[in-house]
Amino acid sequence: MKINYSFPQCYDIKKQITFSQTASANKPQKNSNNDVIFNTYANYNRLLTNESFKRNMISFQGVERVSNDNLDTQRTQQIKGCLLGGAVGDALGAKIEAYTYDRIKEKYGESGLHYIPKTSGVYQVTDDTQMSLFTIEALLKSYLRNHNLETEPSYSIIYDSYLDWYSTQTKSPECAYSESGLLGNPAMYHQRGPGYTCMTALKEGSPGTIENPVNNSYGNGGIMRSAPIGLLYKDPELAFTVAAKSTALTHGHPDAYLAAGCFAAIISNIMSGNDLETAINVSKTILKQHDSHEYVLENIDKALELSKEDNDPVETIEKQFGKGANAAETLGIALYSVLRHPDNYKKTIITAVNHSGDSDTTGAVAGNICGAYIGINKMPRSWIENIEHSSLLDKYAKDIYQVININSKKSSDTSSSYQTSIHQRWDDDKFV
Predict the structure, then answer these.
(1) 13: nearest Cα among 50, 57, 58
(2) Residue 30 above 90 pLDDT?
(3) Where in the chain is the domain with CATH 1.10.4080.10?
(4) Residue 258's closest CA among 216, 286, 228, 229?
(5) Which homologous superfamily is 72-410 in?
């Protein structure tokens, strides 16, 4: 269920910041007051600051990036494929979210929706992609604090990032000019069907946990934002745990957080080189260790079995999985769609969205999985180039790769010189 929220005016701007539209991506400009300024659209993903810096509107110079020439081609293609694949699936499904399939056929023809209609010149995404971006920003901030992908991140940082997203859905875009990071991007303030559960849970301002649930929601607002967790954490059990606990911040039912955990573990397994079925089966093993896993497991097993049958996909999805509103059903529909067309991204997400239900989220989750599996180079180029936030998603994909690369080197090089390079690259002293 989606609801709309009105934008109150932003009265709490303490200082209007003007961002240079000609600022170099690597050279921050200065205004007449000698304040460092950035091009909002070129540099907001570099402005990863902690809460005290952000609230006081203090920016720092962009981090030194690892040379693109050194990027691992296959891994970066998979990371980009996952993030941009999810966004494209989100955008395709958004056009028919909550439509009955009869209405979809009436509007787009007997075979359903096979292309993405543009809005304002781009393929517009929804809150699914927005919250994934805020998840990435939170995970990067957490890594800058502890330099560790072998332990759980700071859930307070993740929750604060979701509160930032909530802020974008309840304030005017004018507020962006007094902020940094994603909060400094006016485009993040567009309301794209923010989920009822996420909005109401975050409005309360008190994070939930698995032990002390904030509500009893089994919705898919957690699974839709969990792909970045699977990309960053190599250990599938850790990815499962992080996604489950991050989901429980806003969704308290086991179906919600266990489905998200499985999803992240599947992405993690794919990134380790496993084939789809192996990745799914490893995740099932982890899932079975948790209480109340039965409905999530049932949907995964149905996806594995039904994908081998030559049945009508729309009929199969609607009779076997429902509308995808439950996170377990979302995962089931996504896995069924990917398993039907494991090497064909376009067919995967067309299958995932053409049904009566929550098409944007089933499309996003299927797009994340398929994109991670085949990589961005095997995806339709025109869809990728025209997706909203494509450049930001591309930059965050590189940031994720670089964090993985730095963490890997750290594990094999504990010398003080390497630790010094970490501080220099990420300007870590500003995250104390």
Answers:
(1) 57
(2) no
(3) 72-410
(4) 286
(5) ADP-ribosylation/Crystallin J1 (1.10.4080.10)
Contact 258, 292 (CB under 8 A): yes
Provide the token pair at 225. Answer: 């934002």
What does DSSP assign to residue 309?
S
Cα–Cα distances in angstroms (integers) from residue 298 to residues 201, 290, 320, in the given order:
28, 14, 10
Residue-wise pLDDT tens digits, 66-119 = 444 445 689 999 999 999 999 999 999 999 998 999 999 999 999 999 999 999
For the record, the structure tokens of 201 come out as: 């849970």
What span, in angstroms and rounded, lies between the C-alpha atoms of 231 and 248? Answer: 19
Phi/psi at 219 (5° precision): -65, 175
d(CA 96, CA 218): 22
With b meaning 16 or more CB within 10 Å and e meaning fewer, what string describes 395-410?
Answer: bbbbbbbbbbebbeeb
Residue keyed to tokens 């594995």: 304
The contacts of residue 358 (CB under 8 Å, 6+ apart) are 93, 97, 98, 220, 323, 324, 325, 330
The rounded distance, in Å, linking the Cα atoms of 367 and 378 is 12
* pTM of this prediction exceeds 0.90: no
Q: CA 10 to CA 6: how far, in whole Å?
A: 12
The token duo for 416 is 């003080």
Phi/psi of residue 386, each to 5°? Answer: -100, 5
Note whether 260 and 135 are within 8 A (CB): no
